[in-house]
Structures are given as C-alpha cells and as structure tokens.
Amino acid sequence: MKTSLAEFVSQTREKLGLSPSGLAKKSNLPIEIIEAIESAQELFLPTTIRQKLAKGLRLNTRDIKPYEKIPADETAPMEFIEVLKISILDDEKDLKCPDCGADLIAHIEKMYDLEDNLIKHPKARCSKCPFQIK
After folding, report:
1. CA distance 58 to 99
2. For residue 73, what pLDDT band results from cuts at 50, 70 and 90?
3. 51 and 88, same domain (yes or no)
C-alpha cells in the first residue's frame, strides 16, 4: 500500500527529531496546517505550502508531490458531488463515502461575502479513505 501524505510528513518530521510545532516553526506555517496535513485532512497542497513544508523537512518539493492525492472535486463526478453538498446543507445524517462506503465527516463552513451576506459552504472527508469535498 502506498504511503499517504500524512504518513510521509509525520515520518520525515520524526526522522529529523522535530515535533509538529517545531516543523511549523521551521516551515513558517501555522501549526494548524501541519496538524491538518498529518491527520490526513489535507491531501493536496497549494504550491506555497508545499514549498514551505519542503524547506522545513529539508526536502525538494518534488519529494512531497508523489504523496499527494488529486482533490476529490476533480475526480468524482460533479453531479454526485453536488448531490452530496446539498445533503450536507440539508443536515442529513449518516452520509457515506462514495469510494469506500465509510462514514463521511461533514460540516458547514459559514462565510460572508463582500456585502455581508451569509454563504454556507459544505465540506466533508471520509473517515477511512482520501475522499474529501473542499
């Protein structure tokens, strides 16, 4: 089985003798980002985060990229993702992962636009596999 991004980052950090907060400091990233990566909440990194993480782990960005997963929004059929998003917004319970059938961990992120209108953005991640909706 292929090593996940979370496992790779955690193992590399431990080999360097760093704690998560130590890696956050060396990478110039918030500890919350390191924790999200190591708990598999983040599976695909923006370029700037990948660059900072590579610096903190004393690696090249090419060394990290193979462990990342393509975001679920790009691989799952859009119609299915839209149905799942509506289900999350409708506060449906017991949602299942389309890839492995495990429970989805879902929540609604509340944001405001420039005119102070509330925008609800559904998010979900699988409790067992890399599937996620960002």
Report:
1. 34
2. very low
3. no
